[in-house]
Specification:
Blueprint: H1 2-20, E1 26-27, E2 33-34, H2 55-58, E3 85-87, H3 94-105, H4 119-131, E4 140-141, H5 142-151, H6 157-160, E5 179-184, E6 189-194, E7 197-205, E8 216-219, E9 222-228, E10 235-243, E11 246-250, H7 252-257, E12 267-269, H8 272-281, E13 287-291
Parallel strand pairs: 5-13, 11-12
Antiparallel strand pairs: 1-2, 3-4, 5-6, 6-7, 7-12, 8-13, 9-10, 10-11
């Protein structure tokens, strides 16, 4: 009986040792320790270390990885081809005539197409370029030509071959005697008469409402081939003064801008060839008749 009690007590101690101790041991019925086989010893739960998070998984998705934000292609390193000359001062031919006709369509050239790239065409091209922020070279390059073609239509034969000069105005009777520059504000022309015969006609531009060109009969009192205005400091070539500071003279601004501008009271001529011819023929003392 006593042996049975002892064995029960030792079994209880073994259970306590197994549950509450910090080291697992086994005892037999007599209280002797029994080694615990290695295989039966409880092992710590084996938890495989998780793989280290990858940089791509932990970092936010880059813009290049998003399907709605594709990476842009690298910028092109090829530069635009440089502008190439198409027409230049001194050129002649049918294509120059087309250039002049297109310039006339948008009021940049006054005289009729001649097929010769002269000073008036150079001035018109330069004005067209400056208005559009292009270099004012006066030479028609590929960029200038493309802009002009885009703003105009294919010239008709009538536009390419216009009768020379503007329609002549009916002369004032005061022009029909002696030598007279006959200037009509109605037709905006100046005609050169000698003894009632009309020798030359070309178009002109006058002053604005604030600086009007005077009307009446005057006389040329001074000619100045390379004159520069002492008031406005602008060139007035081929100037023929007839009333104070008012004169008939060539105007590059009129050649470039047409009737979009005005003079400061002078009679502007935009055909340099014709004003040069007038300057050579007109004398001091010749009449200047300005009328409506």
């Amino acid at each position: 009986m006593r042996a049975a009690v002892i064995r029960g007590t030792l079994a209880a101690i073994g259970v306590v040792a197994l549950v509450g101790g910090c080291k697992v041991e086994r005892v037999d019925a007599n209280g002797n320790r029994v080694p615990v086989p290695a295989a039966s010893a409880p092992s710590a739960p084996s938890v495989a270390p998780s793989a280290a998070p990858s940089a791509s998984a932990s970092a936010p998705a880059s813009a290049a990885a998003r399907h709605d934000d594709k990476p842009s292609a690298p910028p092109s390193t090829s530069a635009a081809p440089p502008a190439r000359t198409v027409f230049a001062p001194g050129d002649r031919g049918s294509k120059v005539r087309e250039l002049q006709a297109r310039l006339r369509q948008i009021a940049w050239l006054a005289h009729v197409p001649t097929g010769t790239y002269g000073t008036a065409t150079t001035a018109a091209v330069s004005g067209f370029q400056g208005k559009r922020g292009l270099p004012r070279t006066g030479t028609t390059d590929t960029v200038t030509w493309q802009r002009l073609v885009g703003m105009t239509h294919e010239p008709t034969r009538t536009e390419l071959y216009v009768p020379e000069g503007p329609p002549a105005a009916k002369p004032d009777p005061r022009c029909l005697t002696g030598r007279a520059l006959c200037i009509s504000k109605t037709s905006r022309t100046v005609s050169w008469f000698v003894d009632g015969k009309r020798l030359l006609t070309t178009d002109v531009r006058f002053g604005s409402q604030y600086t009007p060109t005077r009307e009446g009969v005057f006389h040329v009192y001074w000619k100045s081939r390379h004159h520069v205005s002492t008031i406005y400091h602008t060139p007035m070539p081929y100037a023929m003064f007839f009333s104070g500071g008012q004169a008939v003279h060539y105007s590059s601004d009129f050649a470039a801008r047409g009737y979009n501008g005005a003079s400061h009271g002078c009679v502007n001529v935009r055909d340099e060839k014709k004003i040069a011819s007038l300057f050579a023929q007109v004398r001091n003392g010749d009449k200047v008749v300005i009328y409506w």
